[in-house]
Amino acid sequence: MKSVAIIGAGITGLTAAFYLKRKGVPVTVYEAGGRVGGVIQSIRKDGYLAEFGPNTILETSPKIAQLVRDAGLESRKLATDPKAEARYVVRYGRPIEMPGSVPGFFTTKLFTAKAKLAVLREPFIKPRRDGVEESIAQFVVRRFNQEFLDHAIDALVAGIYAGDPHKLSLPHAFPKLKALEDNYGSMIKGQLFGARARKKSGEVAKDRAPKFSFDEGLQVLPDTLATQLGDSLKLNIFVTKLTQTPNGWMLTVRENGREPQGNIEHRTSNIEHPSFQIEHSAVIYCGTAHRLAELEIELGAPSTASVRTADNFEPRRCSAFQQFSEINYPPVASVVLGFRREDVTHSCSGFGMLIPKIEGFKILGTIFSSALFPNRAPAGHIAMTSYIGGARYPELASLPPEKLVELTLADLRVLLGVRGKPKFVHTAFWPKAIPQYNVGYGKYRELLSDIESKAPNLFFAGHYRDGVSLGDSIVSGVNIAERVAVTLQQP
Ligand SMILES: Cc1cc2nc3c(=O)[nH]c(=O)nc-3n(C[C@H](O)[C@H](O)[C@H](O)COP(=O)(O)OP(=O)(O)OC[C@H]3O[C@@H](n4cnc5c(N)ncnc54)[C@H](O)[C@@H]3O)c2cc1C
Fold first, then answer.
1. How far apart are CA 170 and CA 289, in angstroms?
2. How far is the CA of 428 from the centre of ligand 1 (A)?
3. Distance in angstroms (rounded) separating the CA atoms of residues 116 and 104
4. What mean pLDDT is predicted for residues 184-203?
5. What residue owns the CA closest to ligand 1's atom 5?
6. Residue partners of 343: CB distance under 8 A and separation at least 6
């Protein structure tokens, strides 16, 4: 019976394993850390629920809701409060609500008359068709203007990628925006006329997609998938080497592997842990790009013999993987703070606020966690999650927790009218948070496809390939399970 090894028990690996197992394919998930979920981690403490990493899932594809149903989690799913739709962007040193309608856009104080005129002009700007790969900043300035970049897109990019708009690639980081220009000649026209195509595909635009979590936070999803995997999940197993064999792949694994993420648990001891080998018919790599670069890979050399046997099959070391270490994952810290309701002047009734660099604050943005979901803070209190670092200020993310709280409080005092000391504090540090799909990222995606075509039954899925959001990772896991199941059926 053909078996599949999945490397990494983040949401991509767990989703892929869950669906392969349902299809009757024997699967084993190897996870370096002592827990499942990867960057997803929720804790409940002192009546608060804090998320270390992601806060919500955007339901951009029907496959996401299907996973929740298949996992039996429908009753634990929590949609964001419909009253919490307001998003704020900071300008003139204060949060201003983003307009949600056309009349609202023309009356908002968020943009000057010049920027509003730039939007009216956009449908008449010729699309660029010379094939040159632009950054999102170049695209926005070309189709709108500098003000739009500095006061809107810069903040949005910090919210999604914790990234730099001058470096992020339009086709790789924002493929849907590129498609609007390619297909409709304009963003505005694409928004107006693209609705029918989106409806047909079942895909929902990110700005309109429903958002959700679970009663006890996002961790509920990986925990549930892990429970259903049972013994097929192996924690504290670090995969160090893959060797192609005539029958598939030999994994060299080390027990009690390093925990590669966050401040959750760093096992840096130099004690040599035992290594052992185990063979599977296929491997799906669902880890991170930087760990992929460290993985030792031996590909079978092409053999002239018609039947590949252990005697004529000579694995050779492949150095191409080292290139993945070039992919930048800037560090990010998350700071969850709880306050008594009366100690915060701002209503905080909305999704949260985004902060452009030009405004000079240290935090990248804040999510109004307790406005989104009912049980995130005790009665009479509110919880908010702010992010620090990213490509904008990487050096700030690694500051000690008390310094992170101090910086966050300084900004929140000005922006939200926060008074006194927080009643709840939780910080998390991600030394390598989100991969930056910068200009030139296509090289890495092509390399992955190239390796897949040359190394049968080795597959790649996850946030470093198929999009950085949780929803993208779920869809990536669903799709790779489908692909692998079909491949394994072939003789
Ligand atoms: C701070 C932060 C906030 C975010 N906020 C949001 C949000 O609100 N909404 C949203 O949609 N997205 C958000 N994201 C992005 C989203 O959470 C991730 O893109 C997604 O969870 C990635 O899942 P994954 O399974 O692909 O990778 P990961 O979660 O990184 O999991 C990879 C796993 O592979 C394991 N691994 C790696 N190498 C090996 C090896 N050699 N052997 C064994 N195991 C290995 C790792 O230990 C890890 O557990 C956020 C990300 C961060 C960091």
1. 20
2. 14
3. 11
4. 81
5. 54
6. 418, 419, 420
Instruction: State if residue 55 touches ligand 1 by the CB under 6 angstroms criterion.
Output: yes
| Tokens 């000690």 found at | 400
The identity of residue 415, as a single letter, is: L
Cα(433) to ligand 1 centroid in Å equals 8
| Placement of tokens 């594809």 in the chain | 61
Please give the Cα distance from 122 to 132 (Å, whole number).
Answer: 20
Task: Give CA–CA dist 265/104, Å, rounded.
Answer: 47
Residue 468 in contact with ligand 1 by CB distance below 6 A = yes
CB atoms within 10 A of CB 129: 9
CA angle 282, 467, 7 (to 5 degrees): 30
d(CA 174, CA 166): 13
- Structure-block tokens of residue 85: 């739709």
Residues 381/374, Cβ–Cβ less than 8 Å: no
Q: CA–CA separation, 32 vs 7, rounded Å?
A: 9
Indicate the burial class of 268 (C-beta count within 10 angstroms; 0-12, 13-18, 19 or more): exposed
Task: For residue 43, give the 3-state DSSP assignment.
Answer: strand
C-beta of 365 in contact with ligand 1 (< 6 A): no
The answer to whether the pTM exceeds 0.70 is yes
Give the alpha-carbon dihedral of 161, 264, 324, 31, to 10 degrees.
Answer: -120
Q: What is the CA radius of gyration of the chain?
A: 23
- 430 CB within 6 A, ligand 1: yes
d(CA 224, CA 244): 33
Q: What percent of the chain has pLDDT over 90?
A: 84
What is the rounded distance in angstroms from the CA atom of residue 412 to the CA atom of residue 429?
Answer: 20
Closest by CA position to 67, among listed 433, 479, 409: 479
Report the pLDDT averaged over residues 242-263: 77
Task: Provide the residue type at 261 as one letter.
Answer: Q
Ligand 1 pocket, residue 154 CB under 6 Å: no
d(CA 12, CA 461): 7
Tell me: the pLDDT tens digits for 280-290?
999 999 999 99
Verify whether ligand 1 is closer than 6 Å to residue 329 (CB atom): no
